Structure formats: structure tokens, C-alpha cells
Amino acid sequence: MSLLERELLVVTGKGGVGKTTVATAVGLLACERGLRTIVVELGAQARVPQLFGVAPGEPGAETRLREGLWSISVDPDRALLEWLQALGGRVSGRVLASSSTFQYFAAAAPGAKELVSMVKIWDLTQGKRRRGGSYDLVVLDAPATGHALALLDSPRTFGAIARVGPIAGQADRLGKLLEDPTRSGYVAVAHPTEMAITETLELQQRLHEQLARDLEAVIVNGVLPQRFSAPELERLASLGASAANGAQSNSRDPTAGRPASTRGTGGGGREGRRSGTAVRRSAVAAARAVSERARFQHNQLARLRRRKFDVIGVPFQFAAELDLAAIGTIAEHLRRKL
User: Fold this and answer.
1) pLDDT tens profile 128-162
2) What whole-number distance in Å separates Cα of residue 26 and Cα of residue 136?
3) Are the C-beta atoms of 139 and 147 separated by less than 8 Å?
4) CA separation for the pair 128, 240 (Å, rounded)
5) What 3-state DSSP class applies to 218?
6) Please, how many CA atoms are within 13 Å of residue 88, restricted to the half-sphere of its CB?
């Protein structure tokens, strides 16, 4: 079953690894495949509309990015207020927000904001509140690993506390969605670094413990290409040694400390050779450094593959900042894998 055939796709991982970038690329790919898709951000975020050059709508409103693709930012505080207001009937949001009961509940019920945020996301998978029809796929740009796990565990936490009533019913429906491999999927995003890969392995373990689920795929962002073969690396080593020997020979040049006017006609040639040697040494050092970094990154990918993960490497984007064109490039790369 394809990842994009689920109702909900949760994208998480270590902070700063490009979760929003990957979630947006997945949403773009799903949209291009004809799936009515929405990308969900949590908190006071509106980064996805900015990538498309679209002004974000009102808080909690769905924003159309292009044909077949929307985004929404779910604010947990606002979601909690709306949820309690719905339970309270005609009590206004302003009155409820200023009441001590609401403040007490928000502080004394750990996980309440996470639960109501997930209720909003579940609602998007159902499509009951949209006259235009339901979404085929909801892509959740989840928080960093620890917070994401708390978010996913909130239905179980509240289900244990509230065994009957509306909270219990919502927690039960959410739990079924999150636990069903035909309806939901989990994707980790990581950088090819030791710390990020280790956190991904821990995420897999916690996800299995909490929901009896596994990561569907690990998307490793910013992978450098391996540009040199083993014979080419040997050649680089030889060039480096040759450049070092040339520099050592130049340092023993008996005319090196004499004025240029007393060195004869060969002085300019020796200066040129020294300059050329320095450039060659720098080029060799840079090439070897990039090769070593790429080798280290691919070793980290091998850690994941040894654990039987479906690993998708996304090439490093050589740009000052990622724009929509770069997102499209990433989506095109994912197209061959998803």
C-alpha cells in the first residue's frame, strides 16, 4: 500500500531537519497525483502558505495554495478554547477564555491541548465540516520527536481518564485512526548525522511501544553525493602528496629570500609555481574533505538500512534558502520513491 493512500500521514523527526520542507513536498506530490490534500502546521505557524506566495488566512482557516492543495495552522490554545466552548454550549469564547475554570483546566490537564489538536486533525480526515468535500490525504507537519510522541499518545492518555462521554468517544476514534496501518502512516525526517539518526531509531522504538506501529519510511534530508570512486580517491591522495613535496621543495629555494631584481629571469616562474602548488593543495584538501563528509553521511544511512528501514535520501540543495522551486525538486525526487 502506498504511503499516499492513507487518510493521515504524520511527518516528524529531530528539530531543524526540514520536516516542513518534506511535508510540503509530500503534499505537493500527492496533489499532483490527483489527491485532494491539506498540509497541517501546529502552533502559530504559517510557513507553508509563504512558500507558495499566498497570504495565510484567519487562524484555523484552511488556505488554498493551488488546485487540489490546501494548508491550515492549528493553534492548540485556540483549539482547546473552541472545544471547551462547544462543550459549554452558549458560553462565549471571550468569557470562557477569561474564566478561572478554563485557566485551571488548561494548566491541570496535561495533554489536553494535544488531544484537541488531534481532534481537529481527525476532523479534517472526515471532511464533515467542508461543503466542498473531504480531503483524500492530511499531511501533518508534526512537532519535533518528543512533542510529537506526546501528541500521538494523547488519545490513550485521555481515554484512560475519561471512560465515558464525549472525551472518551473522541479519544477512541482518534486511537483507531492512529493505530490502523491502512488509515495512517508515519514518516521520520532526519539529517545524515549521528545524533539525528540515533533519535530516529529511538522514535521507532517509542512509536512501536505506544501504538504498535513502525515508521513507514525515513527521509534523510541534505545528503551529499559520493563524487569520487576508490581509484579517484587514491589519485587525490597522490596529488596531495605531490603538492606537499612541491611546497617543501619551494621552501628550500635558495633565492626565496632575495629581492626579485637579484633572482634572475626565473624568479617569476618560481613564484607562479608556488602559487600553483598552493591552489592544488587547497583543491585536493577540499575534495578530500567533501568526500570524507559524504562517506560519513552514507555510513549513517547504512545504520538505518541495517535495521530494515525504507530509507529515502534527498540530495542536498545548494541554495541560500529553499523556495517553491526547490520544494518541487524534492517532490520530484520523492516521486520515484513513494
Assistant:
1) 545 556 899 999 999 999 999 999 998 887 766 66
2) 13
3) no
4) 67
5) strand
6) 17
| Count of all residues that appear for the chain in the document | 338
Cα 118 from Cα 152, distance rounded (Å): 8
| Average pLDDT score over the chain | 81
- In one letter, which amino acid is 129? R
What's residue 107's pLDDT? 54
Q: What strands lie across the sheet with 69-74, from one edge to the other?
A: 63-66, 69-74, 37-42, 137-144, 8-13, 184-190, 217-223, 311-315
* Cell digits of residue 274: 608556488
Could you give the CA distance from residue 126 to residue 71 in angstroms, rounded to a whole number?
A: 16
Superfamily for domain range 3-224+316-335 = P-loop containing nucleotide triphosphate hydrolases (3.40.50.300)
Distance CA 252, CA 273 (A): 14
Question: pTM of the predicted model, to two decimals?
Answer: 0.80
Q: So what's the pLDDT on residue 65?
A: 95
How far is Cα 138 from Cα 126, in angstroms, rounded to an integer? Answer: 10
Instruction: Report helix, strand or coil for 9.
Output: strand
What are the angstrom distances between the C-alpha of 228 and each of 177, 193, 206?
Answer: 46, 21, 38
Q: pLDDT exceeding 90 applies to what percent of the chain?
A: 44
328 and 22 Cβ atoms separated by less than 8 Å: no
Q: Give me Rg for the CA atoms of the chain.
A: 28
Three cell numbers at 167? 472525551
Measured at the alpha carbon of residue 52, what is the angle toward residues 10 and 177, in degrees to the nearest 5? 20
> For residue 90, which phi and psi values (nearest 5 degrees)?
-90, 5
Mean pLDDT of 322-333: 89
Q: Compare 108 and 330 and report the one with higher pLDDT.
A: 330
> Is 241's pLDDT higher than 80?
no
Phi and psi of 276, rounded to 5°?
A: -65, -40
Summarised one tens digit per residue, pLDDT across range 306-317 is 999 999 999 988
